[in-house]
Design brief:
This is Zn-ribbon motif protein. Helices cover 0% and strands 41% of the residues. With 83 residues, the protein is an all-beta fold. It has one domain. The chain is globular and about 35 Å long.
Length: 83
Amino acid sequence: MAKPNKKGPTKTVDIFCSQCKTQLFKYRKGGKGALVKCFVERISQDFTNETGICPDCQRQFARETMIRGAPALKIIGGKVTHK
């Protein structure tokens, strides 16, 4: 399979924890669909201390995985919101 585009989209979205509304990171998202996965190379600003865990409420919102040969965070449904 093809790897994700390295340059990626220029539009950034802010990703928040759905429980405590803490900002988790800024992500260069492509398309207008739901947020299912976040490629690590597309995260422009990371506000978390541990990967996939909210720094405020300590709730897990994502799991580390490899998608198309690139490291990514697989988002757990309903745990994050984005603007």
